[in-house]
Write a structure and sequence with these properties.
Elements lengths: L2 H13 L6 H8 L3 H13 L3 E5 L3 E6 L6 H8 L8 E7 L2 H10 L6 E8 L17 E8 L11 H13 L8 E4 L3 E4 L2 E13 L2 E12 L18 H4 L7 H22 L2 H10 L6 E6 L2 E10 L5 E5 L2 E5 L3 E4 L4
Parallel strand pairs: 3-4
Antiparallel strand pairs: 1-2, 4-5, 5-9, 6-7, 7-8, 8-9, 10-11, 10-14, 11-12, 12-13
Helix pairs in contact: 1-3, 1-4, 2-3, 4-8, 6-8, 6-9
Length: 329
Amino acid sequence: MSTLADGILETLAKAADRPVSGEALARGLGVSRAAVWKGVEELRLEGFGIESQKGAGYRLAFWPEKLRLGEVRASLGGLSFGKELRFYEETDSTNRQAARWAEEGAPHGALVVAESQSAGRGRLGREWIGKAGESLLFSLVLRPKIDLSKAPLITFVSAISLADALCAHIDAARIEIKWPNDLLVEGKKVAGILLESRIEGTALDYVILGAGINVLGGGEALPDEIRPLAATVADFAKEKTPRPAALLAQCLAALEKDLWLFGEKGFAPFVERWNGWFRMAGRGICVTAPEGVTRGQALGLCEDGSLLVKTGAGEKKIVAGDVAYATTK
């Protein structure tokens, strides 16, 4: 899509249901009325429902399935996160793109968004499948002024932020955080977080916070191998399923607020909030880690980000591992 078409789309999206005259579009974008007409036709060919209202101008009536740069920009409004933005219709991985950008000097809060990615990864190198038009895939460049040892806690803060954003569309009682980095709805994975960092000497240079959320489509559209374990926001939405761009804005607003608080107050204010989303306290779990398997009863998150588990030999802190629950009910 051309830069002009994206500019027209951004303007119409910000206007919501109000029509915008061709003259106003031309003046705002610094182009001719004829160029505006061509840009509108380009958007229509892309599937955007743009109405022409005689004497009033153009109105964006409906969106296509595809995510577009103009829609993303319009949704972000006055947020600090995303002021610097790179958008890809398709890329290998938003985290890789964000890391490349960080190496070029991208500022704190720089945002990478993709409609689809071919080599997305989750924790432990697992593949993250993001379908075009159905997933929200984004990565943030963060340059927090925190001790290196505190960087992993950003995962837990971010999970809280995403859970808060999701509960605008899904009943909060159905959402849970699975230690350390997944968000589930009724036991099925809807979102995941991947945190990567770069260290300069003994100091933290930057952190890449990546997130993937299954938004549109139904669980039946997911690949066979993950269908029993995963779901989409649409499967559980209270009312209308949000557009990925709208959900992105809600996620970024929550992340911006929570990561600022984390930088100012540390992790202590978040432990209780995280445990409030941890529905499996008291349930039996099995944790597989390099040093072996731990079985016991999940108790909750500690201030250092470890998971406290009650075993036959006493309480044990788990700092890394793959968690499986004995039951999801």
